[in-house]
Amino acid sequence: MKQERLLKVLLAPCISEKSTFVGEKHRQVVFKVINDATKTEIKSAVEALFNVQVKGVQVSIVKKKAKRFGGILGTRKAWKKAYITLKEGSDIQFATA
């Protein structure tokens, strides 16, 4: 895979109550990824960017949601998130300010 593609696969870490619980219980990290990313691309991107060993990748699609913006009815976009399981001894630390 091309290095340029791997740098574009991961968009942002998902930091929420659910992702924190999953991280503590199952040694997983949650990332928002581009919609056409495959599991192998996600695994390669995480290993290249963070220098960790990945045990497995689970992917889920968050479906679009109808919302009202003032008097206008609209929708939020659908997006994909990846649950990355890390091998023993590997850890990703996100700096918090």
Annotate the secondary structure layout:
Layout: H1 3-9, E1 10-13, H2 17-26, E2 28-33, H3 39-50, E3 54-62, E4 65-69, E5 72-76, E6 79-86
Helix pairs in contact: 1-3
Share of helix among residues? 25-40%
| Number of helical elements | 3
The total tally of domains equals: 1
Structural class: alpha+beta
Number of strands: 6
State the assembly state of the protein chains.
single chain
CATH fold category name: Alpha-Beta Plaits
Shape: globular
Write down the Rg.
Answer: 15 Å
CATH superfamily: RRM (RNA recognition motif) domain
Overview of the molecule:
- The protein has helices spanning 3-9, 17-26, 39-50; strands spanning 10-13, 28-33, 54-62, 65-69, 72-76, 79-86.
- With 97 residues, the protein is of the alpha+beta class.
- It is 30% helix and 38% strand.
- The protein has a single domain (3-86), classed as RRM (RNA recognition motif) domain (Alpha-Beta Plaits).
- The strands form 2 sheets. Strands 1-2-6-3 form a 4-stranded antiparallel sheet.
- The longest helix is centred in the middle third of the chain and has 12 residues, at 39-50.
